[in-house]
């Protein structure tokens, strides 16, 4: 089958950023003709993206009668770094969404529940108050901040030369035992002086590990619950390089929620920019996929089966393993792929919007956008935990309507157990539109709008699908919470990423050459590339299209005005 003369029918399973961006790059770069169908099992787009509206009471001021004080919050994906997210920035600019990315207040606190650790990193603070008594930069007479920078640089410099078997624990132990050997080159790069004979050096390096990096790594969504010391050094530091890197990091949040970005991309895709590369989006569309030689069949309950030339699984690995079956003609390839998919481990957690300050630093003076808890030495497992101060994440100090004393604080916490947040402090999702100002309603994601209008819009993940008991039962009805999941970025995951990249490349190149391939299945999604950050999902999507040989800078889309939303 020739890619340039016959219509290629492509199915994309998964309506998150990976699936949508795969369709985007196909539509932008493939000379076609194409027919692209995206299938999302939920009514809302984005697996780990969910935007809620919560009610914090009535606002009383001199401007008029009391009015509802409603705020939105993201329960999941909530920010990016435009200094390093080059593909994301380019796509957002192309579809007219970039102006919706607003600067957040990029500050962090490190704390322990007993108050013995209380440090803040305000190095990127632009509007607000910083207290030198708690500054990381000034701790230990300035040595702690200096060593954090040197250790960080040394780890980043190692990334090209290490394998996933080189662990975080091994790196820090070597830094503590042989600091000059491990860190001198980084100190030279940074042009800082370190007295390698200083007896304060080893204990301060232990503090860099125990008070800063181990808590930070345990607060990552892809963390290994066995503890940060067993994780590949690649995992956190590749993440840092992208999410927090750049000469001047440019951390942004999605104004009115991350789902507005996914909905904007979906609208652009289905707006009919290419009459020869139509994209149709099917939501509430759970599918089962059967792969046979040269074709893929998608089955949906109550609808006729649909056959495609190529299918891209832009889902989690465990979901792909559950819904894909392989026919006799591709059984051997299927067994190998299933082995890769089943090698990926997953963790589950909960995001909840609340007002409980028991998960925050004991001192309100060090509450920051990101609040990182140092775990107890008695802990045997280290599940993902993190708490955000939403008014700081949404940068209230530079937003006049919210930059006022007396407005309530509210948080989003990512926890392994919802019992960590008292139910009476969990905020309620707004029900109905009676208290919602029309301007606020119009700015919200469509999925949130539909929820307010009492539609059953399913977002996030549901415990029963994964054999997990529903937490707390009916007590959570109407509360602002969701379940999320993510793969563990361990050495096994890196090996699976390497294997699936080799498979994707061989399959895509063969399909491009012949227009048909024995096992016409490709894989995208967060588990296939690094930590699954949005930029990494776009990198993977773009790479698939490049391997397919569909890139053509000379291709100009044919204009059309039709819509194709199913």
Automatic annotation (TrEMBL):
InterPro entries: FAD/NAD-bd_sf, Zeta_carotene_desat/Oxidored. It comes from the Bacteria. GO terms for molecular function: oxidoreductase activity. This is FAD-dependent oxidoreductase. It holds the Pfam family NAD_binding_8. Transmembrane segments: none annotated.
